[in-house]
């Protein structure tokens, strides 16, 4: 019996989600013990380029496909939000390089853990989407919302701590931007969840 070939849109979205997991994993593993920021930033750039390729595949396929498995706009929106998560991780890694920040602190490590957990939730959700198990998706979107709330809390703590303990204004600017970028990336993960929620509503 020949296995039915997976829909190109779902397959590519799964590939994107898998890349987000690899990137978030790599980010979290390396950020807690940064050996070489140049290698770190370059490797994160490779993940981001890979994700861009998947985005181009989806745009190309949307332009030539008449019938899509879910609404065209939903496919495009989901692709964009997934891409935003990887862009956020890569932009943070490039800041480490630009600012020569070799000593990430406990807050950056906490953000990295939240983002890694979020990436796994996204991956599970996208794989369920391609199996059309829409209602099973919900536990993952709820979890993504909870993780984003944790990100908000970490941001509150670390900004408060930053202004209380760091006196060098340059160092303060660097760290504040990195914290905010990381928190924006947790927001991007929640955007994926919100997009999936609207897909559930429209299709179930």
UniProtKB/TrEMBL annotation:
UniProt record similarity statement: Belongs to the UPF0111 family.
Protein name as it appears in the record: DUF47 family protein
A Pfam short name: PhoU_div
InterPro entries: PhoU-like_sf, Put_Phosphate_transp_reg, UPF0111_domain
Lineage of the species this protein comes from: Bacteria, Bacillati, Bacillota, Bacilli, Bacillales
